[in-house]
Amino acid sequence: MASQTFAARSVPETAGPPTDLQATGADLRRVEFPTGVWGYERHAVDAYVARVGGFVDEAVTLRRPDGAVRDALARVGEETGAVLQRATEVAEDITARSQTQADDRLARAEREATAIREAAEAQARELDAEIAHLWRERSRLLGEMERIAEELAALAKDADRRFPLPERREAVVEDATAEHHGEAPGATAAYPVPQPGDEAALEDDAGHSGPEGLQDDDFDEEDFALDEDDEDEDPVRHGEVPASAELQITRVLPRVPHD
User: Fold this and answer.
1) What is the pLDDT of residue 108?
2) Of 256, 244, 254, whose CA–CA distance to 188 is shortest?
């Protein structure tokens, strides 16, 4: 029994645990422990486990600032940079599209405003022209009304001269008879204007028996003639009727012989 234990203890170790500077993952997996009578050496195993724990602690401590944190920061930085780059590109694209849309809307608004202004100016010109036309038409109508009023006044005056009222006929006949005899108007007796049914009185005053007793020499051609100058002149247009254009009632009466 003692010999076996001595023999087991005297067996040289084929491989010991790796040193701190040589330890790698593969070395840790290939490690071999010496055997004893009752199995592996307990002290060797405990020592190895302790060394491995130290390696793990050192690895975690050393890699945290230099490795994991740096890698994490690198990954975060890359992702952040990509996100920022993408955000910048998206912002630039949105800004460009917004600027384009704003320019298009501004140009369209300017075109619409120009069209509205031109339409308003054209309508204003049309209204001004229509107002000017209405003023000209108003002036023309007023002038036409004045002309018509003057013509009506002239016609009324001419009608009053040609066809006086009954109370004025006697005075007209008196003035015409006086002018015919070379006397002043109103110096001779007035000849009454015959009324319907007074043919007999007219025949007695004239000294004739009737119309058939009238002779050609009782009338002059000038009794029924109008002045040539009056034919070319429109008495109505000038607002007056020339005296020579009036047909005197007394000129158609027969001449009364002098005593």
Assistant:
1) 93
2) 256
